Amino acid sequence: MGSSWLDVLDVWGERVLRGRFAQQFAALFYKNVLVAWRSRRTTAIRLLAPFLFLLLALVVALALNANNALQERFVATPIAAPEAIASIPSCHEDLHIGFSKPCIDFVYSPNNDTTVNRIVQAIMATNEPPIPADKVLGFTSRRAAEEHLGAHPDGALGALHFSRSGERALSYIVQANTTVKYFKGSFQDPTLFFAMPMVNAAARELTRHHLAANPNSKAGAASGAGAAGLVWAPRLAKFPHPSLQSSSLLGQVLSSFIFASLMFGFVTQLVGSMRGVAAGAGEPRESGMLSWGWLGQVLSSFIFASLMFGFVTQLVKLTRGGQLVVGSFIFASLMFGFVTQMSNLVSEKQAGLRLALRNMGMLDSAYWASWMAFDAVITLLTALLLVLFGMALQFGYFIKNDFGLLLMLFWLFGLAMTSYSYVLSVMVKKSQAAVYLGFAVFIVGWVFQTVIFVARLPYRADTYYSETNVWGRVFFWVFALFPWNPLTKGILDFNEATLAATDPGLRWHQQYSYCSYRPNPADQPEYDPREEFRSYDCVFPLWQAYLTLTLQWAGYWALAVYLNNVLPNEVGTRRPWWYLLSRSYWRPRPADQVAALRRVVQEEAAGTAMPPPCSTPVDDDVAAEQDRMRALLAQRIGDEASALPGGGSSHHSTSSSSAAAPPAYAAELYGLRKVFKAPSVWLGIPEGQLFCLLGPNGAGKTTTIDCLTGVLPFSGGDALIYGTSIIVCVLPFSGGDALIYGTSISGEGGLDAVRPLMGVCPQFDVLWGELTGREHLAIAGHIKGLRFSTVHREAEELLGRVKLGHAAAVRSGSYSGGMKRRLSVALALLGDPKIVYLDEPTTGMDPISRRYVWDIIQAAKPGRAIVLTTHSMEEADILGDRIGIMARGRLQALGSSIRLKQRFGSGYQLTVHIATPRNMSYSSLAAAEQQSVAARMARVKAFFRSGLGVEPLDEGRSLLQYLVTREAEGALVGFLQQLEAQAGQLGVCDVQCSLASLEEVFLTIAKRAELEAAAQAGNSLVPVEAPDGGGELLVPLGEEEVMHPSGDGRSYRVQWAQDDAGRLVVLDVTLAQQQQQQQQQQVLRPQAQQQPRLIHSNSLDSAPVGDT
Prior knowledge:
six-stranded mixed sheet, disordered C terminus, single chain, 37 helices, alpha+beta, 14% strand, elongated, four-stranded mixed sheet
C-alpha cells in the first residue's frame, strides 16, 4: 500500500493540491490513514465493536423479556377473563419456605372467643384440602400474634384477626406479606397466593355463621336452605391494562450495549496509550497503538466489568420500573473512540514526533486539520456501523426512529468528543496519564447520565421554566458544556418514542416539533400516538442537541489549539496568553535584520548579555572568534563603534578582521545563550564547512542545537540562518540574535522562513514504527514542501546513500538501532537543506555503518553548513573542519583538530623501536643478543636524557616511549635530526612522532572547566582517605600531589578521572614513591578509557545549560 499511495499522491497532488497547507494536510492525513491501516486488527475491532455489543444486547433482551413474561405487570391484559379463587395454600408451597422449614398456614386472634374459634374451624374444614389442626395457631390478641410472626419470619403465610364492634357485630382483617417473591424463574404474587384465598374463606364462613344464627333473616330466606344451602362461588376478574413500560425494556438493554460497543474504541486506544509510541524503540509491532496482549488482558477485563455493571443494574432497576441505565452503553460505545485521539496525540507529543514535524516546517494548522479530518471519518464510520448493525439485528429502537436522526446524533457526539479529547491531550504529557484521565472522564460521564435518567435534570420542564428555582437554568447551561449530556437527552427521547410496540418513533421532520412545553391541556393539540410521537412536557429537542454538539465541536477544537500554544509543550516552551492579539501571529514576516541585530548591541551595552566573571580568561581563539563576530555585527548594522562592549576594540581583534569582507557564513550566532547570565556564544559557521561541537553530557550541545532549530527559546542573543532571524516574536526571549543565511531568528516569522533551509537529525530517533523508510522520507518531503514529482526520486536516492534500499519497504519498527540512525540522517539531508544539524548521528552504529554515514556527511558538505555533535573523538577528528569544545555551558576552545592538539595537547609522543639481530622477536633471541639489545636501549635513554632531559614513560624489551612537552618543542626538530643521523650507531630502526590525541585535548579542557567551576562555587577541596591509614586528606580539586597535614614529609600521588558529565573524580591515591611509573603510563592511556574505581566524585550541579 505504501508505494501505491505515494504514486497516487504525487500524481493527484501535482494537479489538485496547491499551497503549503494543502500539501502538508494531505501528507499528514495519509500518515494517519497508514498508521490505522497498519493497525488493522485494532481498527477492525474498533469498527466491529458496535455489532458485538448489539449482539450481546439482543441475547440479554430476549432473556429479560422471557423472564418478565412471568410477571403480571409486564403482561398485557386487554380483556379481563374471570378466574376462580383458589383455596388457602399450604405454607410449604411458599417459594421462600418450601418443605425444608417448619411452618404453619396462618395464625388468628382472639382464640378465647367461641364464635371466632367456630369460624376458624369451619375455614380449616371446608378448605381444599382441609387444613390440619397443627397448621393453625391461635393467640389471645392481635399483638401476641404479631409478636409471634416477628419472632418467626417465614414461619407463616399470614394472619386472620377478628374484632367486635358490638355484641353481635364481627369484623376481620387479613394480614399478609405483600412482597413479590422470585425463585428460579418463578414469581409469586402475594395477593393471589394467600391474601385473596384467605379473604374468600373468611367471608364465606362468616356469612354461613350469620345465616345459621339468623335463619329467619332476609339473607337466610334468600338462600333457601339457610347456611347449609349457601352457594359460594365468587370469581376474580383483573382490570384490563397494558404491559408495564415505564421505560422500554429493549431501549434499556439496547442502549446500554450500544454505549458499551461505541466505548470499545475508547478503551482500545486508551490501552494503546499505555505503550506510547514504539517508534524508535526497536520493537516491531503488529498494531499501531497497542499489542494484542494488552488488548486481551486489559480491554477484556474492562468490557466484562462494563457489561456486568449494565446487566445487573438493569435487573435491579427493572423491578422498580427505573431508567437508570437507559443509554449507558450507547455512551460507552461512542466513548470508546474518545481516547483514540487523545492517546494518539499524547503519544506523538511524548515521543517527539510532533516536534520533529515542526522542525521540518510543518504548519500547526495542517497538523490539527489532518487529525480532525481523520477522526471525523472514523467517528462517522463508527456511528454509521452502529445504526446499520442495530437495524440488521431488527431492533425497533433503530428501525422505528429515523436513520438520519440517529446517525446525526451519534456522529456529532463523536466529533464533539474528538475536540474534547484534543483539549485533554494538550494538558497531558505522559501516555500513562491519558489512561487514568480517560477512565475518569468515562466515570464522570456515567454519573451525569445517571442524574439525567433518574431525576430528568436539568431537562425537566417544570424545573427549567420555574420562576422560583433559578438553579434549574444554571444546571441546564452547565450540563450543556459536556458532550455526553446532549447525547443522553437524545437517547432518552428516542427511547420514549419507541416504548410500546405501536409507538411510531421519531421522524426527521419532527426534530423541531415533537418537543414542547404546554402544561395546560387546553393548549395541547390532539394527535394520534400511533402515527407520531409528541411530548408536551419537554425541553431541549433534538435540533438543540445537534446545535449544542456542533458548537462544542468547534469550541473545544479552538480551545485545544489555543491551549496548545499557551501551555508548556513537550520541551516546556509556550506562547504568551495574549498571542492572538499579536500582529506577528496573524501576519508573520522576517524581522528587519538591522533592527534585530541592534537589540543585541543594546544588550551588550546594558550588560544583560555579558557572561558572569570567570577566574580563567576566555581562550584566545574563542575570543578572536567573538571579536570577528562583533566586527561582523557592526558591519551589518553599519555602526563600527557599537559592535564591541563599551564601543572600543578588542585586543584580540586584528586589523584585517574588520576590514576584510565577511566570509559566507551559513549561521551567525550573536550572544546566543539559554540561561540568564550564562556565557553567551559568538560564532560564525561558514558555508561548506562542518562545525563539530564536543562536550561532556550536560555541557549544552543539544541545548544549542535546540535553540538554533527553534525548539527552545533563547534566554538571550539571536542566530541568523542564511540571514534570517529564527526567534519568533511570540516566543519568550531575553535578547541576542543569530543569522541563518542572513535571516535573523529573533524576527517576526524568522523561524518559519528558516525551517525550510534546515535539516535536523535529533539525538534520539523520532520515527513512526508503523511506517516504512520510504514512507518516512515521502511524508517528510511533502512537509518540507518539495515538488511532488521529486519527492519519490529523492527518497529512493537517499535510501540508497544510507544503505537502506533493501529495507525501504520495511516498517521502521523492525529496524535495528543503526538502521534507524541512518534513516534519521537521511531525513535530515532530505530536500537539499542549506544547514544541517546532526546531534550524535552515529550513536549505536556498528563500525561499517558508521563509515557509511561518515562518507555521506563528508559528501554533503559542499554548498551547505553542517553542525555535528558527537562523543566520538575519532568522528570529530575525521569530519570536523572546525571543532568547538563546550563545558559547563560555555565554549571553551575553538579551532581545527591540529590547532587544538597543538595548543592544548601535552606535547609530542615519540615511540622508538630498537633494532634486533636478524629482525627477530626479542623472545627468540639468544641471551647474548638480548644483552646487546639492552645495551642499545641504555644508549638511547642516555641520548634522550642528554638531548631533551626526558625519561621514558613506558618501555618494553625493544621499545621506548617518550613524551616531549610543549616547553621542549623548540629543541625537538634539532634533536630528531641528530637522532636520525646517529640511528645506526644507537641501534634505532624506527622512530614515530605524533601529536597528543584529540581525546586528551578534550579531557584537558573539560578538566580546566571543572576546576574553574569548582573555584567559583567554593568547592575546591575534595576529602579522600589516605591509602596508608593516615586519615582523611583534603585534596584541592585537580591537584596531583598533596602532602600529609601532619607535616611528617609524607606525600601522596592523586590520580584524577572524569565521569560522563565531565566532572572530576578521584581515581586512586598512592604514596608518591609508588606512583612514578603509573603516572607515566596514564599519560599514554587516557583516563577516560579506564573503568575507574571511584573514590570520590566532585559533583557540581551548577551547570548553566544541559543536553536534552
